[in-house]
Amino acid sequence: MRDRSPPRVPLLERRSFLTAAAAAGLAAPSVVQAQGTWPNRPIRFVVPLGAGGATDIVMRILAPKLGQILGTAIVVENRVGGGGVVGTDNVAKSPPDGYSFVHAAVSSVVIAQTLFARLPYDPEKDLTNISPTVFVPLCLSVTKQNFNVTSLAELIAELKARPGQLSFASNGTGATSHLAGANLLRLTDTRAEHVPYRSGAEAVTALLTGDVQFAFDIPALHGPYYRDGRIRTIMASPDRQPLIPDVPSNTEAGLPELKAYSWFGIFGPANLPPQITERLHAALSEALMDPMINGRLEQSGMPAMTGYSIERFNAFIAEERVFWPPIVRASGATAQ
Q1: What domain range includes position 211?
Q2: Do 227 and 145 share a structural domain?
Q3: In a shared domain, residues 161 and 224
Q4: Which end of the chain has less neighbouring CB within 10 Å, N or C?
Q5: Spatial separation of the C-alpha atoms in residues 45 and 268, rounded to whole Å
Q6: Percent helix, strand, coil in the chain (nearest 5)?
Q7: In this structure, are 25 and 67 located in the same domain?
Q8: Residue 14 and residue 36: Cα distance in Å, rounded?
């Protein structure tokens, strides 16, 4: 399986993207007229997950710089529900006038297609892909409560010796932390009980108390407990991470096929005029390359996904729509 991590490359070339011209020509006259003066009022960016979460933090880091580049106010609106589905649907059904966008995670624009029997929107037809924002690697940690495992190889050995007896935590059914655990079991032909919690904080508490034996989550969450010796972090994916630099990558740990990550990006409604798509994409690229913003994201353990043209982002999402469904199906996760 090819490496899923995004290459880190210099600032992307700003190439024109005119393939949606025909669709733009079908837009309402008011939308077409707005292209020449966009933006001339505040732009709404929906965060479809809770305030204080990773998608919210990243959007609020980007918003001031993005507003400065575009010359307008950026309004960040949390619209929560359905693991990101409610907020994403709200933007999918908004007018394609350049004033409503969503900062979504892979969960609501890719994974949801397999997880939900019926979505209120079609991510492939009802959204315009603008730009990725950050890559979110997940690390694997184990409890230190009556569980003497110090490496991935030892964890796999325990899973094989005690089929179905161990348990792992996540921050919700169908979340990337859940699917990372399911993928580990799938790749190693082992079984364990999945225990979903309402948040990553609750999941790591279960790890601290020994209610579960292992869990995947972001290095920013597990790192402090690893450094103070209360949990063991045994693998970083896909590369060593600055917040936990002595923890081996998945390849170093012996399971290069195991990819545990999430990513976020900006999306608009379908039929967005290509001039707006192009300008917002360029503004996001500039903001993500700003040294102060780039440094803050890196320190948060969520490196900026720079170097993505619109075409490359489209291709990346197409690959993701092939990569995730087998993992979702193997996990047994479903949502209504």
Answers
A1: 139-253
A2: yes
A3: yes
A4: C
A5: 9
A6: 40, 20, 40
A7: yes
A8: 19
Residue 172: give its domain's CATH number. Answer: 3.40.190.10
Residue at 231 is within a domain:
yes
- 34 and 111 in a single domain? The answer is yes
Closest CA to 204 of 192, 219, 184, 221: 221
Q: In this structure, are 228 and 204 located in the same domain?
A: yes
Query: At 74, phi and psi to the nearest 5?
Result: -110, 120
Express each pLDDT in 70-104 by its tens digit: 999 999 999 988 888 999 999 999 999 999 999 99
**pLDDT per residue as tens digits for the range 259-284:** 899 999 999 999 999 999 999 999 99
Q: What is the mean pLDDT of the chain?
A: 89
Domain boundary among 205, 221, 253: 253
- Give me the residues paired with residue 57 across strands: none
Please, which residues have CB within 8 angstroms of residue 194's CB and are 6 or more apart in sequence? 167, 168, 170, 173, 178, 181, 182, 331
pTM (global) more than 0.85: no
Per-residue pLDDT tens for 188-207?
A: 999 999 999 888 889 999 99
pLDDT exceeds 90 at position 7: no
Q: Give how many domains the chain has, as a whole number.
A: 2
Cα-Cα-Cα-Cα dihedral sign, residues 271, 64, 263, 176: negative
Greatest alpha-carbon span in the chain: 67
Do 285 and 315 have their domain in common? yes
CATH assignment of the domain containing 278: 3.40.190.150
Contact of 267 with 128, CB cutoff 8 Å: yes
